[in-house]
Each structure stands twice: as C-alpha cells, then as structure tokens.
C-alpha cells in the first residue's frame, strides 16, 4: 500500500471518528446530566463527568411521576402501530408494484402528494374524526390514524418492483392464490424491507409528540415525549432538567434495542431499495 493511499485512509478514519464523536456527544451529555443533581443546571462550570455521580434524578422522577405508565403507553403505541403499519405497507406496496388496474398511477401519485402535506393541515379534521368515534384519550387514537404510512408504502413498492414476475407466475401456475403467493413467495424475500419499515416506523411513533399531545389528555395516558414536556413546568422539581434527562436516558434504550435487532436488515434494505 502506497504512503499516499495510507495517508488518505488515516485522514478518512480521523474525519469519521470526529463526526461520530460530534453525533454521540449529545447523548453522552444527556447521560452526564442525568447523573448530576439538578442536571448541571445548578452549576456554571463545564465538566465532562460529575465529581459525585448519583442516581437521585432517576429515583425522584420515577417515584413522583407515572414514568413506567408513560413507557408502557409508548411501547403499546409504537409496537402495535408499527406492526399494523408494516402489514399495511407490505400489502399496499405489493399491490402497487405487481397488480395492473385502472387508476394505479393516479392512486400512487396521490400517495406521493400526501408526503408533502404537513401534519398541521390534517390535524383538526383528524381530531374531529377521532372524537366522533369516541377514541380521544385512548392509545387507539394515536395508533389508528398512523397506520397509513406513505413513506413506508413508497419504500415497499420500490422493493417489490425488484421481485421477479416469473417467480409469481410460477406460483400461480402451481395453483397458489394471490394471498398464498404473497405469503409464501414474496414475504420470504422481504427481510431487509421489513427491517427498514420496523426501524423507521418504531422510531417515528416512539418520538411522535404533536399528535399524542392533541388526543391524549389524562396524565397517566400520555406517551413519553408528551410526558417529558410536562416535567419542565412541574412544581415538584426545584430544577426539572435532571428529571428530564433521566427520563430521556431511559427513553433512548428501546430505540437502541430495536435498531440493534434490525440493523443488518436495515442496511440491506436501504441498499437494495436505492439500487432498484
């Protein structure tokens, strides 16, 4: 290996290391603040690690606030919502990629147009629909309106376009109906796609703030992002930032777990979808 090539590799490694440090530092700062009484808000000195780390912030916020209930609500919303949304995205993506029917292009174009619509445009109509069917202040008020994931359908369609048509025709000639063809032939090839949909869907629903803020009212029915927003104005804490950082630290763990489980499929799915 020439010296010039070696120097370029070292330069690239140093640049990527610096970039990784910049991206990881906010998470590290969050952990440090969670282990500091008051969350570093009571000190004017900058430090990378507290002199006397403590778990007092965790103990206080978990003892005085329904954090476990918030976490359970978020797990229900993100878990069930992601599972149902993945099923909808797979079915819709398969239909748009492999079925020939009148108006398919128009329907797909309408899907893409909705991506450009901000949530504020549909916030009031969606709330009125949820209120009319009596789902306000329940997890289903958050889950049902998010089942139709346009980005997920788009990714699924792009992936399904790469499934060979002769493979589907062979299954049909063997007597398989459309459902059997989809389950037995198409789904086994969709591991990377499912990894992408699960990670993106779970992350979006776990971090969603605006819609749960509108439809959830009782303190024990809140999700974690909405619950976090109530801590900053809570008179129970002299300095709420330690409590906020403690809850935020715990909140990150499910996201990391989901990503670690599906990271290989996620990378393969993004690469395959981009190539196709």
UniProtKB/TrEMBL annotation:
The keyword Transmembrane helix applies. InterPro entries: MetI-like, MetI-like_sf. It is a multi-pass membrane protein. Residues 71-262 form the ABC transmembrane type-1 domain. It comes from the Bacteria. The keyword Endoplasmic reticulum does not apply. This is Carbohydrate ABC transporter permease. Keywords: Cell membrane, Membrane, Transmembrane, Transmembrane helix, Transport. The chain crosses the membrane at residues 75-97, 106-128, 140-160, 181-203, 241-262. Belongs to the binding-protein-dependent transport system permease family.
């Amino acid at each position: 290996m020439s010296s010039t090539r070696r120097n370029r590799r070292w330069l690239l490694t140093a640049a990527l290391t610096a970039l990784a440090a910049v991206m990881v530092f906010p998470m590290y700062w969050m952990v440090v603040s969670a282990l500091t009484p008051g969350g570093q808000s009571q000190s004017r000195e900058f430090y990378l690690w507290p002199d006397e780390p403590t778990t007092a912030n965790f103990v206080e916020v978990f003892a005085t606030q329904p954090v476990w209930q918030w976490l359970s609500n978020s797990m229900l919303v993100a878990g069930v919502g992601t599972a149902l949304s993945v099923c909808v995205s797979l079915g819709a993506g398969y239909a748009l990629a492999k079925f020939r029917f009148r108006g398919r292009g128009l329907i797909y174009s309408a899907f893409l147009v909705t991506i450009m619509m901000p949530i504020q445009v549909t916030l009031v109509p969606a709330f009125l629909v949820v209120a009319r069917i009596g789902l306000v202040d329940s997890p289903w008020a958050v889950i049902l309106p998010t089942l139709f994931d346009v980005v997920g359908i788009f990714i699924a369609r792009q992936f399904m376009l790469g499934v060979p048509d002769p493979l589907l025709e062979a299954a049909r000639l063997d007597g398989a109906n459309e459902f059997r063809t989809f389950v037995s032939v198409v789904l086994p090839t969709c591991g990377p796609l499912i990894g992408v949909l699960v990670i993106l869907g779970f992350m979006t629903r776990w971090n969603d703030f605006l819609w749960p803020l509108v439809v959830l009212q009782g303190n024990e029915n809140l999700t974690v992002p909405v619950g976090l927003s109530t801590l900053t104005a809570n008179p129970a804490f002299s300095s709420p930032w330690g409590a906020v950082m403690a809850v935020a630290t715990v909140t990150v763990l499910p996201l990391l777990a989901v990503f670690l489980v599906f990271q290989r499929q996620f990378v393969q799915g993004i690469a395959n979808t981009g190539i196709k």
